[in-house]
Amino acid sequence: MQAIKVEHLSKTFRVKRKEKGMKGSIKAILHPQTEEIRAVKDVSFVVEEGEVLAFIGPNGAGKSTTIKMLTGILYPDGGCAKVLGMDPTKKRRQLAYGIGTVFGQKEQLWTHLTPYDNFRFFGAIYDLSEKETEIRIDELSNRFGLGDFINTPVRNLSLGQRIRCEIVASLLHRPKVLFLDEPTIGLDPVVKETVRELIRQMNREEHTTIFLTSHDVGDIEKLCRRIIIVNDGQIVLDDSVEHLKHHYPDHSLEEIITEIYKAKELTAVG
Fold this sequence. Notes:
Blueprint: E1 2-16, H1 26-30, E2 34-48, E3 52-56, H2 63-70, E4 78-83, H3 92-96, E5 99-103, H4 115-125, H5 130-144, H6 159-171, E6 177-181, H7 189-206, E7 209-213, H8 217-223, E8 226-231, E9 234-240, H9 241-247, H10 253-262
Parallel strand pairs: 3-7, 3-8, 5-6, 6-7
Antiparallel strand pairs: 1-2, 1-4, 8-9
Helix pairs in contact: 4-5, 5-6
């Protein structure tokens, strides 16, 4: 079964044009010049249910724009997307009950509340009964090792503890698809490995589809079997991690990815 299906997805933004010598001028203020930026260009791919996919690229490649269209935050200019069989632009509220999101650089937890109080709040948002919420909190707290700090205000937690709580909050309602954007950013190596193992465990035990973006090659190597690389809004490679390593035996995955990033000619592969 397909968890995500994207066909010819495109998105264009109109932004202010930067012109030399115009900054702060009356003309620039009264008559700003604009230009169109195509952030995503005719992108198509499929993610199967239970798959762990790395969707990566350099800064400005179109990753975040694509995720925002898949979660219904942005509307595409062209093409279409289906997540769990739903159009995110038409059924965003309904889709929210089937997906979870974790953004390593953006907090979704209320920092003045404890993780436990946050989880109860999220349980109410997702229409879980109090009993269901308590059972799920207990289950995930044990699995993610939150017992020592579940009643400590989030603002007093370490980054690693907070990320674990962020993941738990996103999993309370048993989403079928989990979007992870830089989930291990800023973490030390030991905590990174702990978070990766927890993600692997959720995928293995609950068959959760994982859509991962990360600049950390370790995340990709240790979590993902398949990798899609985007550059300049286009897919330049769609292949298995195993095949890439086999095809380039004398290069590390990081070296392979770096060379693809640097490539001037964008040729779709896979």
